[in-house]
Amino acid sequence: MQPVAFLTMDSLADFVAYDQLVVEQLLQAGITVHEVSWRHPAPEWDQYSLVIIRSPWDYQADPQAFLAVLEQIEQSSARLLNSLETVRWNIRKTYLRQLEQAGHTIVPTVWLESPSAAELNSVIAYWNTPEIVVKPMIGANADNAFRLSAGASPELLQQAAAAFRNTTALAQPFIESVLRTGEYSLIFFNGKYSHAVLKTPKKGDFRVQEEHGGSICSVQPAPDIIACAERSLLSCPQPLLYARVDLVRLPTGQPAIMEVELIEPSLYLSFDSLSPARFADCILRALDRPDLPS
Questions:
Q1: CB-based burial of residue 113 (10 Å sphere; 0-12 exposed, 13-18 middle, 19+ buried)?
Q2: Start-end of H helices in the chain
Q3: pLDDT at 290 over 60
Q4: What is the pTM of this model?
């Protein structure tokens, strides 16, 4: 049988990755996995049965080049998962606006075109909130994410404005429950809930990623958190081999979608002992039946 490729980046030295756990499961089933950087100069995609996007965590530096690589894979005999259609839908955070229009609760968001320092400052007053978070429309790993308060220095506001010059930013009120409780990440395989983790930032920070010092623990979310995540996936392109939905609780206690990660989410496989086998099973089903996952 042809090998499977896991699409990654040139070096994961500064990141925490868990994919080796599912690689081991696939090897036990007789499936060889090659990790291939999306920046590889001359990949032979036709040699693979599946190319599964896993850890290209620098794609946001050149999203057009990344999409061009995915188009090459899509034109080969290999099957790309998740699909190019899914990636195109998910790569710009404007998908959150579509989810909101479909009736899902998201963290309140405004969209800013090349915002000035004054505009960023005015958003804080718009929500009458102590702090906001401003992010790029295309981004990952909390790169170029700014936490701005009502007393933000002109220098910080100018730095944020410079980061979003000639591009679109999204601004959201900072959700205090991220500090008190944490941010939930729910992982799904073939549309079915697998497991979840709770991520909390280190003291003095707001970023929950491990690479920024955040802490992660396994958690069993409340039913309303799971239901919110499950509903959100119904409005996403289908089918989905894998998905991760990040949620927080608003000040009202209502669950709200922070992100729906369908391109290259960390799946936190080490936090549920059965999750590597679940993911491997879904990959094996995709190999056996080209019309899967379903």
A1: exposed
A2: 20-28, 63-75, 84-90, 95-101, 117-127, 154-163, 177-180, 223-234, 275-288
A3: no
A4: 0.91
